Request: fold
Amino acid sequence: MEKACFTASKKAPIENPPQFVVIASDDNTMAEGIRWISGVIDKNKNADGSKMYMSFYTNTDQEDFYWETKKELPDAIYDVYKAGHEVGNHTSTHLYCVEFGEVDENGVDNGKRAGKEKIYAEIKRVEELLTARGIPKEHQFGFRTPYLRYSDDTFRALTEVGFLYDCSICSASNNGAGNNFWPYTLDVISGKQELDKNGNLPPDNNADVNTWGKTSPVGEYKGLWELPVVNFAVPPNDYNFVESALKKHYGEDYTFNGYVEGLDWNLWADAEMDSGQTVDTLMNTLKKNLAGNRAPFTVGLHSQFYFEPKETDFPRILPHERREAFVEFIRQAIQLKDVFFVSADMVIRWMQNPVSAKDFKPENYFRT
Reply:
């Protein structure tokens, strides 16, 4: 059967769409963190009373966190799967698909690339361990690349494995909260597209364009969905503080555009936010999305970060304050009409059969 093509668009596929919030946790190297963060989701309900869901993109062979020796990790992941949450793939060792490299005068990142065979092997290793623990291959729908660093070979491997979707491509710098792309399929060879007025290859960074520079173009992958990783919109009251923190880390030439990359690490290590600033930023982004085109709001987390590392890694927010910030964000967000916390695979199924917010029921888009 021919796979459907969904062209990237900033227009919702239906009037009054749900505002999806996709909480997705990477790595998951601490059972306590996995159980805690899923427990917060399980204890709460969407505004309409429906069950909330989230996604876990999982490693299995990170140094010191091997599933074969730390049995509590696969047990915790299996438990969240049985609770209804999505379990996805994040490579076995947290692989650098594209390592950091020098950026030349043309903006090309010359970082070393892992070959397709290496990427494929790492993905298959996770698939096999998940399957052995009781999570069937047909329920392993999605992938996120470590460090959000990808190459064309990354997508070659994803296609060969047979994923439904990827969630690795960051929103381009000219997109913002309320104006991001809805999910799309990677059917158009971006090398054949014309640059937009800002010099970007649309949609988003669909061209092996990492945050650190342009590299080789991404090819055509029919039917492979992309759920863009959106950025967090910093509230205006915190602009000066965040700009100062980012310049400290990236140099005085760093240009702050009001956004921080959409992962908790970036809020706490790069932008050096405290608990209150974290909640304010997440809610500011959500409200802008809700008032705008309602493209899915992806929130990238790391379940282990809510208990570790120590405060030296995140200078202004202690572990208990990180947990408090997450709980408070959930508390505020579920009070908003038309907001639904769902797993990433549910969003893709909704794209294939969209209904308005008033008719949306998460259980209608649950895995089968």
